[in-house]
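Entry type: protein chain
Record version: 2
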Amino acid sequence: MPASLYDFRNSPAIDQVGVEERISRLSKRSIKKESKLAALKLALSMVDLTTLEARDTPGKVRQLCIKAMHPHDSVSGIPPVAAVCVYPNLVRVAKETLKGSKVKVAAVSTAFPSGMSKRKVKIEETKWAVGEGADEIDMVISRGKFLEGDYHFVFDEIASVKEACGNAHLKVILETGELSTLDNVRRASDLAMEAGADFIKTSTGKIQPAATLPVTIVMLEAIRDFYYRTGKKIGMKPAGGIATSKIAFNYLVVLRETLGEDWLNADMFRFGASALANDLLMQIVKEQTGIYQSIDYFSKD
């Protein structure tokens, strides 16, 4: 739908108290013992292992890719993660290392994490990353323009980057920690989906607060309403601050109760939380062997 035909100011107002009450209720649910191992493996299969530091090297990316394909070979039945996320200049290294596997290569783009650059530069960076072999692009929105109320600027920018992606999937990072209110989170979610996002994502991981359950449920409800209205399924990626299996389970419960089983897979839901992978691995080993292994048994990258 063209931006001119959709008034983003008409996104529904969010009842913050109601959201918090729902989160409180859902967070008290537990995943039963017989389902715990399956949930742990499901969560691991949804992880995007990420390295986005200025000190990143080809060697570090190769090591991360090997972990992505083989999280813990000493225990059988452990799935690979969903994707490895890197800067565009390291996409080719990741693509070559992951050749023959089902693990996707994601690249951040559009002047990540600030988004403070010209649109032409953002489009060129996106085309470069896709040309290097990126399967997915994680872009950031122009938060300053959004907070000014220039929604059509943000819409057009997302749509331009989506076009530059070609066949690559586009994840749109809202950077919810800078949006201030849940109303803004809902409006930004609606805007991103209307502009062509394949996924909407909470955060870059560089700003606090990053992912939170209240923000996530607002974004999931936006996805639900968009699906009811258009028939199109959009994915969701909470990123930043999800470090333990217990917290990941809370997200899976909220996902299941809001969007249903069709979204309970790595094609529709991701965790942007590299630290989460090791905790999930520790819990999987515990469930399968009855013994906790030390964190030292798992690689940091």
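Comment: The chain has one domain: 3-288.
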